[in-house]
């Protein structure tokens, strides 16, 4: 009977074990493959290797073709290399903003001078001279020839520049933050003003005039639809967008050059404006009706220069060098062609009473104007794209500097610079739509446009001057800083005239972004001032005792802490005190895991430090920038690997688990956040910074999703942040006047023993 019962129990246990082992039939939990690369990744790497081999063969062959061939080989082997494909991408990603400037620069000039009748030869040549030399000095000299030679691992932009010189002075954080905040503010306004102004060009087509007259809000509705489509395309990557846009931009700039040349054939003398004397004389001439505000108009021709620098990491420096001469020639021909048309029609009675006159459209025949409007709409979309990609780059750089929260970044294209940040994309889209809701049309939006960009240009000049100074080029640094600050301060003063007409919105948006960066930076400094680390001799005795203390039940078989500390030979005190907080978290193994992102696309590596134990592990995982953060699946692989080598004792789960892995025990993930204690000695500014940082983190989202932990119910702990705490005064008891002293435990025991002895000595009654 007993034997039969035993056999039944054995069969039940076997059936139970079999059911447990079949848990994977009821769940599709992610598991790692036996290969370190997917089929798609292997194919992509093979294509890249094939392309590199072909390029190497071409370069080797070029060496036999004389000095020119050797120069070409050196060029293609360095950071200035270019390719036809990426050159087309550069056209679409980089030049959209500056390519829309001819649409409104000359129009704004005529409005400032009081109409075409007041735009005599002196005025036209002065305006053309200022435009030409502004493009030459600001865009060509400052950004293309100087700034783009200064990069941080191929990345450009004001944050990348600051990271190169941050050790030269703490004050440099001020221009860096201010310039970055202004650039991001301009990234909100550019899509609104570029697309709305281009769509409004549809109203000039006679065929559509009745439709727009009946529906006054139709322009705004079309603009909103285009903006929504544009932002929805960002997740596909700027490389795919750039190839489509690049072809359009190539047609657009060719169109600008052709229409400019057609009008220049009537008056080639406008090229006298290449002499800078014409511009300086007219700026300070009494015939200049706009006064110093003329520089605000001239500045419109340089918008997009800062985006060109910040997008360098997306397309490569060599591709911008290769395409910029074509872009500049096309712009100059278009501007000078508009100048020639103005001089030809200055006394034309048909334009004498025109309220708003746009030379760009007027210098074309009506049939050509249809094509111009269509291309201008496309150019407006492309201008927005340049600023959106620039904003992604700036936010990524700010995150590396710990000026913004660590947001989820995706890399939808083959190159490291092609990034997409979903949260930033949503914020930009909502903010752009809010601008349209507030200002309604491009005329009112343009009042706020450009002011923030002048701030970014000024701060970039300061940082470039500091960089040149510490590179030993001190004379050039002084000349560069003085010359470009003088020019850009004129732009800033002229742009400030727009403050009450919409510039206030730009400044307000800039200050809001600056507040986020400043408070996040200050809060991070305070947290790091409190952070402490423990060496193995400090934490191992306590963990060893807890590991073997069977009076404490297991919290989980494995407790995994995600940490930003990548040092393998120490343990963060936050993790240590989390283990012992409240009720000790006993486990078969504790894990401190950090994740690094490498510059290679498909890296999958890990390293382990066990401190000579089989229950404490420091793990560092290195993932390529295109590899998803599947931390749970990778940790299961690491645990199995360590179990096979004997570094981790065998674990076997008794009950089914959602991860369907019976070979590894239960896993609990823990993330630690900080909270400021009321006893902390921290200034009011510091307390505000910490409160703002935690509020921003709450809105931006926890890293739970980034690590892929959301389905596994991770534990998010809040630990006190002790920043130089102060001792509060002692409490005073008020319920009794003279409380009797409370006897200690030892004295109470002695008194009880004496009483017992005395009772024993008494005679019985």
From TrEMBL:
<keyword id="KW-0406">Ion transport</keyword>
<keyword id="KW-1133">Transmembrane helix</keyword>
<feature type="region of interest" description="Disordered">
    <location>
        <begin position="1"/>
        <end position="61"/>
    </location>
</feature>
<dbReference type="InterPro" id="IPR053951">
    <property type="entry name" value="K_trans_N"/>
</dbReference>
<feature type="domain" description="K+ potassium transporter C-terminal">
    <location>
        <begin position="560"/>
        <end position="718"/>
    </location>
</feature>
<feature type="transmembrane region" description="Helical">
    <location>
        <begin position="370"/>
        <end position="398"/>
    </location>
</feature>
<keyword id="KW-0472">Membrane</keyword>
<protein>
    <recommendedName>
        <fullName>Probable potassium transport system protein Kup</fullName>
    </recommendedName>
</protein>
<feature type="transmembrane region" description="Helical">
    <location>
        <begin position="215"/>
        <end position="232"/>
    </location>
</feature>
<dbReference type="InterPro" id="IPR053952">
    <property type="entry name" value="K_trans_C"/>
</dbReference>
<feature type="transmembrane region" description="Helical">
    <location>
        <begin position="284"/>
        <end position="309"/>
    </location>
</feature>
<feature type="transmembrane region" description="Helical">
    <location>
        <begin position="475"/>
        <end position="497"/>
    </location>
</feature>
<feature type="transmembrane region" description="Helical">
    <location>
        <begin position="503"/>
        <end position="521"/>
    </location>
</feature>
<feature type="compositionally biased region" description="Low complexity">
    <location>
        <begin position="751"/>
        <end position="765"/>
    </location>
</feature>
<dbReference type="InterPro" id="IPR003855">
    <property type="entry name" value="K+_transporter"/>
</dbReference>
<keyword id="KW-0630">Potassium</keyword>
<feature type="transmembrane region" description="Helical">
    <location>
        <begin position="244"/>
        <end position="264"/>
    </location>
</feature>
<keyword id="KW-0812">Transmembrane</keyword>
<keyword id="KW-0633">Potassium transport</keyword>
<keyword id="KW-0813">Transport</keyword>
<dbReference type="GO" id="GO:0015293">
    <property type="term" value="F:symporter activity"/>
</dbReference>
<comment type="similarity">
    <text>Belongs to the HAK/KUP transporter (TC 2.A.72) family.</text>
</comment>
<keyword id="KW-1003">Cell membrane</keyword>
<dbReference type="Pfam" id="PF02705">
    <property type="entry name" value="K_trans"/>
</dbReference>
<dbReference type="Pfam" id="PF22776">
    <property type="entry name" value="K_trans_C"/>
</dbReference>
<feature type="transmembrane region" description="Helical">
    <location>
        <begin position="124"/>
        <end position="148"/>
    </location>
</feature>
<feature type="transmembrane region" description="Helical">
    <location>
        <begin position="445"/>
        <end position="468"/>
    </location>
</feature>
<keyword id="KW-0769">Symport</keyword>
<dbReference type="GO" id="GO:0005886">
    <property type="term" value="C:plasma membrane"/>
</dbReference>
<dbReference type="InterPro" id="IPR023051">
    <property type="entry name" value="Kup"/>
</dbReference>
<feature type="compositionally biased region" description="Polar residues">
    <location>
        <begin position="1"/>
        <end position="11"/>
    </location>
</feature>
<feature type="region of interest" description="Disordered">
    <location>
        <begin position="732"/>
        <end position="765"/>
    </location>
</feature>
<feature type="transmembrane region" description="Helical">
    <location>
        <begin position="169"/>
        <end position="195"/>
    </location>
</feature>
<feature type="transmembrane region" description="Helical">
    <location>
        <begin position="321"/>
        <end position="343"/>
    </location>
</feature>
<feature type="domain" description="K+ potassium transporter integral membrane">
    <location>
        <begin position="87"/>
        <end position="534"/>
    </location>
</feature>
<dbReference type="GO" id="GO:0015079">
    <property type="term" value="F:potassium ion transmembrane transporter activity"/>
</dbReference>
<feature type="transmembrane region" description="Helical">
    <location>
        <begin position="419"/>
        <end position="439"/>
    </location>
</feature>
<feature type="transmembrane region" description="Helical">
    <location>
        <begin position="82"/>
        <end position="104"/>
    </location>
</feature>
<feature type="compositionally biased region" description="Basic and acidic residues">
    <location>
        <begin position="37"/>
        <end position="58"/>
    </location>
</feature>
<comment type="function">
    <text>Transport of potassium into the cell. Likely operates as a K(+):H(+) symporter.</text>
</comment>
